[in-house]
Amino acid sequence: MQNRITELFNIEYPLIQAGMIWNSGWRLASAVANAGGLGLLGAGSMYPEVLREHILKCKKATDKPFGVNVPMLYPDIEKIIDIIIEEDVKIVFTSAGNPKTYTSKLKENGITVVHVVSSVKFALKAQEAGVDAVVAEGFEAGGHNGREETTTFTLIPMVKEQLEIPLIAAGGIATGRGMLAAMVLGAEGVQVGSRFVASEEASSHQAFKQLVVDAKEGDTHLTLKELAPVRMLKNKFFESVMQLYTTNPTKEDLIKHLGRARAKRGMFEGDLEEGELEIGQIAGLIHDIKPAAVIVKDIISEFESAKKEVTNL
Ligand SMILES: Cc1cc2nc3c(=O)[nH]c(=O)nc-3n(C[C@H](O)[C@H](O)[C@H](O)COP(=O)(O)O)c2cc1C
Hints:
- 43% of the residues lie in helices and 15% in strands.
- It contains 14 helices and eleven strands.
- The chain has an eight-stranded parallel barrel with strand order 1-2-3-4-5-6-8-9, surrounded by seven helices. Strands 7-11-10 form a three-stranded antiparallel β-sheet, with no helix packed on it.
- The structure holds flavin mononucleotide (FMN).
- Flavin mononucleotide (FMN) is lined by residues 18-21, 23, 42, 44, 69, 71, 95, 116, 137, 140-143, 170-173, 191-194, 197, 267, 278-280, 282.
């Protein structure tokens, strides 16, 4: 398969494994890279020196390209950016912030920059800031998300209508059929998150992975819009947030209730009741925990067979 996305990253398939806090370390990113996709390290849950370690280990585990996802809310972001430059990582996906802030510095250092957005307006701002490609992420997606609730099915064609640089679709894609649908709508590549959580190489807790496999349609919800909207599984912690909303809470009340390290507690330490368990709506279609290479292979072979089926329509 060859298009602007495979050429931009020098990869075999236009399939990107999303950078995900507490899930995507060097094991997952290198497994996806070795399987022909683009693997991303999730810097959002790593201290700067931990990120350096993951970069070094990833380089040992693969000679294929890989990248780093940098959520710009990160407190130590300057150090993270410096380490990426020092360690000569060539691909960065930025998210949750203004693409103008770091794009020129990264590009001056020969780095390919992609920015994640959830609306047409911000896709165009990212293009203006000089990024090489945009990830447009719909309402279905796991983790932090936009406030507009625009679904992937509507967001992709609307962004495509106006964007000139390559477009990568994210949110609700876990299969080859999903990938094909996104590409028919105008994407040139897909970013897959939730499906890779249920992989053997994801660094999250086994109990969380199993809960993702057990999840059914309707088991996730997007909440905490006043802070940073996030889609999570409806567990005891989620119910306590819903309870708090009945009292008309202030932003400070929500921050206090969220406390520190909820996501780590849930996804990494496996506290399924009190932790924040980030996952997308497509969890209802994820039925097993597999090696990342098998996930890539299955998605690509289903993509190819679905493409043939469609020609018969
Ligand atoms: C557990 C989890 C953690 C995530 N962490 C991040 C993150 O650190 N940075 C980021 O840009 N996006 C993050 N996301 C969003 C993904 O990068 C991706 O865009 C999204 O998962 C795509 O939708 P899907 O889950 O339906 O595949 C996360 C998603 C999940 C499920």
